[in-house]
Write a structure and sequence with these properties.
- By secondary structure, this protein is α/β, with parallel strands linked by helices.
- It folds into 3 domains: 168 residues, Thiamin diphosphate (ThDP)-binding fold, Pyr/PP domains (Rossmann fold); 164 residues, 3-Layer(aba) Sandwich (Rossmann fold); 177 residues, Rossmann fold (3-Layer(aba) Sandwich), CATH 3.40.50.970.
- The protein has 20 helices and 20 strands.
- Strand 6, helix 6 and strand 7 form a beta-alpha-beta unit.
- Helix 3 crosses helix 15, helix 9 runs parallel beside helix 11 and helix 13 crosses helix 14.
- The longest helix is centred in the N-terminal third of the chain and has 16 residues.
- The protein is globular and about 75 Å long.
C-alpha cells in the first residue's frame, strides 16, 4: 500500500538536494507542503516574505551568491505572476533557481478555473524549463531533473507546477538523491589553440561574465590575467568576478561606457570572451562588432553551447565552464610582456575613478571611495535598478571576498530582497544595499520580513524625489515637460522606526561618514537616507 504523501516526498527530495532555505508567500494551493515542512523545520527554514516578487528576488540572489539553486514557493495565479520578475532576473543573471507553484487540481484544468494559468505559455520564454507534476510517483524524477536543469550548463530558473490534489496523493516512490552539477571542461587541445592565438596577438583583451563561476575560478582569472598581462573587462554587473585593485583590471562593459573601453574593444586583435553573452549592454546595442563576422578575432568560451555563435560568428567557440577555462590557461604558462595597451587602459581606468564634481553637497562617488576603505573586507553589495546604481557600479572596489548582487534585467526593487537573502545566508557578514527612492519603495514592505527574521542590512537610499532614470531621458527628449516622474516620498525615518530599523539622514560626506560608522556598530538594520539634488542625475542610458 502507498505509505507516503507526495508533499512529504517533495520535502524529502529538497532535503536530499541540500536545500536549507525556502523563500515564499504561503498559499492554500500548497498547504500540504507547508504541513510537511513543519516536521522538518530544523532542516529547512521557510522565510515568509510580504510579496511574491521579493520571494523570487531572494531565491535568485541565493542562487547567484551560493551557486546552488535558490528555492521559491508561491501559490497559483497572482502568486505565480508576481514571482515572474525574479524568474526573469534569474534568467538574465544566469542564476540557478527553482520556482514551485501550487496549482489548481488536475480535474479543473482547461476550464479557466479560479486562478488558472498556463505556466508553460507564461514562463516559457523566461526560464530554462517549465513542467507540471501530474503523477506523484514521478515526483522524484522530475525534481531531480529540475535541479539538474537549473544547475547545469548556463545556470538559470526552472518552474515546477504542483497540482494541489497531486500533493495529497499517497505514493511509494523514493526521494531522489543529491543531483551533481554537470558541465563541460575545456580540453588540452583547446587550451593549446587558445595559447597559440594569445601568444601571436598584439592587442589581446579578456571580457568575462555570466554564471557558473566559483571562488576558485575568480582566483584563476586574476592570476592568469596578471601572469599574461592581458587587460580584463567585466561584463555588466559582473564586477565582482575580478579584483578591481589588480593592475590587469581596466573597467566594466556597462551602460555609458567611457571611450577608452570602447576603443579597447574596437581595436583589439583578439578578444577572449569568457562566459559572456553578446547582449545589448556589452556590445553597446551591438554597435562595437560587425555582423555577422566581427573584425576582431573572437574566441568565445561559454558554459552553454546555445550561446556560441548565437549573435556573432566567432573565430573559435568552446563549450566549457569558466573555471576550467581560466585554470587551464593559467597552467598553460602563457608568456607575454606588459604592453602599452594595458598600461594605458589601467591608467584610464584609474583616472575615470577620480571623484567628479557634482551638483549639491552630496557626492556619491566620495561615499563609494569612503566605503572602499571602511566597508568590511567581505562585504556584500546589492542594488536594484536606476541611475543611482551608476555610482556604486563605477566607483566601488571589489576584492576577492566582496560580492555583488544586482539585476542584469534592470528590475527595480531587486536590491532590498537581495540584501535580505544575503543576510539569511551569511548573517554575520556586512550587507550594503544601494537603493533609489523609487526603487526602494517597490520593496519597502520587505522590511517586515527583515524585522521578523532578524536581518540587519545597511540600506542607502538615494533620495532625489524622482524616478531619476526616466526623468533624465524625459528632460533630454522633452525639455521642460515633466510628466509622471516626480515622487512625493513618505517620511523614511518613520518607516525605519516602524520596522525597528535605525535611521540617519545625510546631506554630505561628513554626515555619511558618521552615520556609517554608527551603523557598523548597530545590531539592527539601518536606513541611511541620502538627500540628493533633483538635478544630480547621472548621464547614460536607462539601467
Amino acid at each position: 500500500m502507498p505509505n507516503k504523501r507526495a508533499a512529504n516526498l517533495l520535502v524529502e527530495c529538497l532535503i536530499n538536494q541540500g536545500v536549507d532555505k525556502i523563500y515564499g508567500v504561503p498559499g492554500e494551493s500548497y498547504l500540504s507542503v507547508l504541513d510537511a515542512l513543519y516536521d522538518f523545520n530544523e532542516k529547512i527554514r521557510f522565510i515568509s516574505t510580504r510579496h511574491e516578487s521579493a520571494a523570487s528576488f531572494m531565491a535568485e540572489a541565493y542562487g547567484k551568491l551560493t551557486g546552488e539553486a535558490g528555492i521559491c514557493f508561491v501559490t497559483r495565479g497572482p502568486g505565480a505572476t508576481n514571482a515572474s520578475i525574479g524568474v526573469h532576473t534569474a534568467m538574465q543573471n544566469s542564476s540557478p533557481m527553482i520556482l514551485f507553484i501550487g496549482q489548481i487540481a488536475r480535474d479543473m484544468t482547461e476550464r479557466e478555473a479560479f486562478q488558472e494559468i498556463d505556466y508553460k505559455a507564461y514562463f516559457g520564454s523566461i526560464s530554462k524549463w517549465v513542467v507540471q507534476v501530474n503523477n506523484a510517483d514521478r515526483l522524484p524524477e522530475i525534481i531531480g531533473r529540475a535541479f539538474s536543469v537549473a544547475l547545469s550548463g548556463r545556470p538559470g530558473p526552472v518552474v515546477v507546477s504542483l497540482p494541489e490534489d497531486m500533493l495529497r496523493e499517497l505514493t511509494n516512490a523514493t526521494a531522489v538523491s543529491k543531483i551533481k552539477k554537470s558541465c563541460a571542461h575545456i580540453s588540452t587541445n583547446q587550451i593549446n589553440v587558445i595559447k597559440d592565438e594569445l601568444e601571436k596577438s598584439k592587442r589581446p583583451l579578456i571580457i568575462c561574465g555570466g554564471g557558473g563561476w566559483t571562488d576558485t575560478g575568480r582566483d584563476y582569472l586574476k592570476s592568469f590575467s596578471e601572469s599574461t598581462n592581458i587587460p580584463v573587462i567585466c561584463a555588466f554587473r559582473n564586477q565582482d568576478l575580478m579584483d578591481t585593485n589588480s593592475y590587469a583590471y581596466v573597467g566594466d562593459a556597462s551602460f555609458g561606457k567611457p571611450e577608452y573601453i570602447k576603443e579597447l574593444i574596437k581595436y583589439s586583435d583578439l578578444i577572449l570572451a569568457i562566459n559572456i553573452r553578446f547582449g545589448e549592454v556589452v556590445t553597446d546595442a551591438w554597435s562595437l562588432f560587425d555582423f555577422p563576422h566581427p573584425s576582431q578575432k573572437i574566441i568565445h568560451t561559454h558554459i552553454s553551447e546555445t550561446e556560441i555563435n548565437k549573435v556573432y560568428h566567432c573565430h573559435l567557440g568552446v563549450v566549457a565552464s569558466p573555471d576550467s577555462v581560466v585554470q587551464g590557461l593559467k597552467e598553460a604558462n602563457i608568456s607575454k610582456k606588459i604592453g602599452k595597451d594595458l598600461e594605458r587602459a589601467r591608467s584610464d581606468f584609474i583616472n575615470s575613478r577620480k571623484t567628479p564634481n557634482t551638483i549639491g553637497t552630496l557626492n556619491v562617488a566620495e561615499i563609494c571611495s569612503f566605503l572602499n576603505i571602511n566597508a568590511d573586507e567581505d562585504a556584500i553589495f546589492t542594488n536594484g535598478a536606476g541611475n543611482f546604481a551608476i555610482w556604486s557600479g563605477k566607483y566601488l572596489n571589489y576584492s576577492k571576498e566582496h560580492r555583488l548582487l544586482a539585476p542584469q534585467a534592470g528590475a527595480m526593487g531587486a536590491g532590498l530582497p537581495a540584501a535580505m537573502a544575503a543576510k539569511s545566508i551569511y548573517p554575520n557578514r556586512q550587507v550594503i544595499c544601494f537603493a533609489g527612492d523609487g526603487d526602494f519603495q517597490m520593496s519597502v514592505n520587505e522590511l517586515g520580513t527583515a524585522m521578523q527574521e532578524g536581518f540587519n542590512p545597511i540600506i542607502l537610499i538615494h533620495n532625489n524625489g524622482s524616478y531619476g532614470t526616466i526623468r533624465m531621458h524625459q528632460e533630454l527628449r522633452y525639455p521642460k515637460k515633466i510628466s509622471g516622474t516626480n515622487l512625493k516620498n513618505p517620511n523614511f525615518e518613520f518607516i525605519a522606526k516602524a520596522y525597528d530599523f535605525g535611521y540617519f539622514r545625510v546631506t554630505n560626506l561628513n554626515e555619511f561618514t558618521s552615520a556609517f560608522k554608527k551603523s557598523q556598530r548597530s545590531q539592527s538594520g539601518i536606513i541611511i537616507e541620502m538627500i540628493a539634488d533633483i538635478r544630480d542625475i547621472s548621464p547614460g542610458k536607462s539601467i
